[in-house]
Design brief:
By secondary structure, this protein is mostly helical. It is built from one helix and no strands. The protein has one domain. It starts with a helix and ends with a helix. The mean pLDDT is 87.
């Protein structure tokens, strides 16, 4: 029983972390894309 509850707790904590990491990645990529586009426009 204890083992099952720990596995459930791990899964419940993993899901928000996965969501947060996905959001963080999208934010970082969007910021990088903005910076890259600005650099390209400046160079042009």
């Amino acid at each position: 029983m204890a083992r099952v509850s720990t596995v459930a707790a791990q899964k419940s904590t993993e899901k928000p972390i996965m969501k947060f990491s996905k959001i963080a990645v999208t934010i970082v990529t969007s910021l990088l894309n903005k910076n890259l586009s600005q650099l390209i426009l400046k160079n042009l």
